[in-house]
Description:
The complex is a heterodimer. Chain A is built from 10 helices and 11 strands. By secondary structure, chain A is α+β, with helices and mostly antiparallel strands. In chain A, the strands form 4 sheets. Chain A has a 4-stranded mixed sheet with strand order 8-1-10-9. Chain A has a two-stranded antiparallel sheet with strand order 2-3. A two-stranded antiparallel sheet of chain A has the order 4-5. Chain B folds into 4 domains: 205 residues, no CATH class; 142 residues, Rossmann fold (3-Layer(aba) Sandwich), CATH 3.40.50.740; 181 residues, Dimethylsulfoxide Reductase, domain 2 (3-Layer(aba) Sandwich), CATH 3.40.228.10; 132 residues, Barwin-like endoglucanases (Beta Barrel). Chain B is globular, with a radius of gyration of 26 Å. Chain B is built from 24 helices and 28 strands. Chains A and B meet through helix 3, helix 4, strand 2, helix 5 and strand 3 of A and strand 3, helix 2, helix 7, strand 11 and helix 22 of B.
Amino acid sequence: MSLNNILTNWSRYRKGAEEGGFHEYEHQWGMVVDLNKCIGCNACSVACYAENNLPVVGEARYAKSQFMSWMRIERYWDEPDLEPYQASPTANVDVWIETNPPAGKTALKPSMPGSYAEGLLEPGGQGFEERVGVFGTKGEMQDFGASFLPMMCQQCHAATCEPVCPVAATYHTPDGLNAQVYNRCIGSRYCSNNCPYRLRYFNFWSYYEDAWPEPLHMQLNPDLAVRDKGVMEKCTFCVQRIRVAKDEAKMENRKVRDGEFATACVQTCPTGALVFGDLQDPESRVSKLWRFHQVEQGKTKQNKQNKELRGYRILEGLNTDPSVMYLERVREV
Amino acid sequence: MSGNNVNRRDFLKILGWGGVGVAVAGCDRPTTVTLEEGKEEVVAYLQPEEYVIPGVGVWFASTCQQCPAGCGVHGRVREGRVLKMEGNPDSPINYGKLCQMGQAGLQGHYNPDRLKKPLLRKGGALTEVSWEEAMAQLDQKVGIASGLNGERFAWFTGTVSGHQSVLLSAHLASMGSKNHFVHEVINDAVVRAVNQDMLGEAAPRYLLDQAKVVLSFGADFVGAGASPVYFANSYAKFRTATPRGVLIQVEPKMTLTGGSADLWVAIRPGTEGVLALGIANYLTTNGVDASGLPESLRALISGYGPDKVSKITGVSADRVARIAALLKDRSPSLVLAGASAEGHAHGYQSVAAITLLNILLGNVGKTIVPSGASQFPQMEAKPGNTRDLLAFANAAEQKALDVVFFHGANPVYTAPAALGLAEKIKNIPFKVAFSCFPDETAMSADLVLPILSAHEDWGTHMGVYQPEQKSISIQQPLMEPIYPDSKGFGDLLLVMLKARKVTGFDGFEDYYAYLKSAFAALPASVKGDAVSDEDFWGKTLQKGIVKVATVGGSLSTKAIEINLPEFKEDSSRPYHLVPSARLGMWDGRHANLPWLQEAPDQISKVVWTSWVEVHPQTAAKLGVKEGDFIKVASEHGAVEAQVYIYKGVHPDVIAVPMGQGHEEYGRYAKGRGVNPLKVLAPATDAKTGELALYATRVTATHAGRRELLVKLMGNETQLGRKMVATVKAEVFNRTEGGKDVA
Lengths: 333, 742
């Protein structure tokens, strides 16, 4: 896609869900993450390092959050659905995204102690007990396991990162992906600031200078570039694998078959918690799962006939229209 | 081929196929090669070089060497370099999947700190020498002319299997010695001993997917266990069964498996057996038939009423009753024991009490079924333990050894300081390390022989836990050696056997020729539809897996006497030290892999260093905040690391993960974090002699300094947003039970 094309057809590509959406896709690669199966083991994340030439940044840079893990496993200790958090009755309550406080409880506000706006929750800090009472499980001990959440670029169809790029380095492809053109990127980092999921990673350094001392560099995947300082990057849904599969299908004059290939994370997942495929192919596994769980694209709020079905998209209320559907964790309580 | 004086029976033994089962027929027919999803082609190593097209990757089958599980792998090779590992879908262990350690095997192969030349200790320092000089030294010390013979020679290895094990045993026999110390810190030796005594088989098959409830006493089966990927696959079936399986995890510190529990129960370390008897007490007083148990056991169980059990274990009586009721109502269940139950002076007794629950609940035969043995016993994995580490330290102290060969184990790092191993092995005049890396043991050896990496060498392996389909997994080179001055382990074994003039091995030019002959000598039942030996060899290399028959296999239940000690507190050292194992660093062998150093610990999310896990109450008592350093001191030493505070650890427990604290082992590992194994008390399980890893008492004090604890998560909570949403199992069973959606 040329820059000229983007500039000429900007409004066409940016047609949001509220305007009926953009429908001229060849594919719409999507994913399903079943949190009932995910054990948080990290295999997906390391597979991604191996496949996508992700640099190891070292402890000092990691401390500054300059790491490059396109796929990361977040881990939370609380489960708002099972153990409703309790907010201070004196808190000045207004809107908190997706918050649906149970009767008699108040919604959480960013200015509350220990919340986002206050900075990091500091265990052992002043008032920690009180705050753990608010955020953790209610009892003295952790009564159930952790809540693991694999997070990779959600490949949003109404991506908040795309319209803010001053040079159209990030744009939407006919495959339904948020592409990042490294050669076009000038490192403004607007896209990263605009991503509500914090899934974009910036090359603050020329990591290649020390990330792959000889002969570690021999492992680098020649199918994709090693990125240099000043460039934004993120999960591509292993676009190099998509390319190979599409080329092969084209040479054999057929469509890409469901399950014919998978991204590195999906391929290795020991429990099969991750599923990858084309949401435009009604017979693909991902399509069947989206249909079964009554999750539809182009919506900011799902109107499910069966409210008990597990499918949901993270922060979809922000009108990002993600291509990744999560299936709720299940607990015996 | 083979020597002239070898009869067929001996010949088969030389080739690794000795044993009762050689004539067994009726194995699975190997299927033809399948093209894996998205893979350009899976080819045999024998394909001509013209096959390799620039820009096109080719996949070769091999075996993962990152832990003893022995997963089958495919390695993607392009322009002569191996780039990516994926699981081999034909492997009955990992079904095409890999864990993070398997993914990171490449960084061992391409590690910048690999040994490149043989090293010989000259005047106190290790000095690079030629292979000629190294082998001359070796011959001088262990060759026939050396006169060394008998028990003054030993091998010290990690888990070993397949033809390497066959050759190693032949070499040991040629030396006239029986000293083979097999050491793994992460092992299930106590559970194996109990299973052997109570069920008649050391490693039976656990049918997780048939169990409606799994009660695990610290068994980290999807994490640092016998076969993590195999159990992860079983776990997924268990969680998607109808009704969905329930996981209850009881342990002093949350393991990766505990991280997925429906009910997580913190227990005072060492009281796992008491809780098991408390559950048995509830069951027998609530209608579960215990008449099959001996009178003495029934009396024992009746002595563990709710109040007593609750007082000792710290688990409330309500909770004990709830767990027991769940087990009773939802049959069949499965009760497992793991490292935190095993690692005490009475570890065997605790595990026996836990295993008794399976007998009482009627799980044997339902969720625990026989696994049997492979038809080729010589090839089976020799599982490691810590008993051999203690025996080795003792032998070194007694000056009972003249020569020791190390391979696949790093005892100088894993041995507790109280054992004094680093000093004691100085009593052994000639220590040889066969190693890829300058680890602590290699650096204290007298001769270091650089061996090929797992991705450069030939071999055959059997996973340490093969409960379903017994199979032999092929290890073949995925690329040419990076360092021409390193040699294959099998090749070296063969050279040493020839030097000892062992009959039968002189005809093989190298290890490859030996392996090829071995596969040609397999019975037709194993070869399936191959039309010739050459055809079979080609198919074997292409597929990477040879399925073999199972012999025997039966379970019998035997309730044994159980003696649990009185539980004592130690006010001078109020905390229990938990040296926790993690999938990733494992026992420290992966600390030199940068991907795994930067992969956050699954529970604490800490990277690149060691940390200390404490409960918020304990943190308050010690007056520490996250990032503060605390000093954890036992009778035998102290370590200092930063605090991570959460509720997934018992308030009486201080947990420090294994894996860091290397004094050698290359740039990524050396001088990073601390090694909790160093401060362990050298206590042992009274019955098995295994090191009691969880039995050390410690004090904890604020060390007075603080740094940012480097970890992934800036926030421990969801702040009320729907990040990880949760539904109740009853809803899941209603909406998805019995449905195969996609």
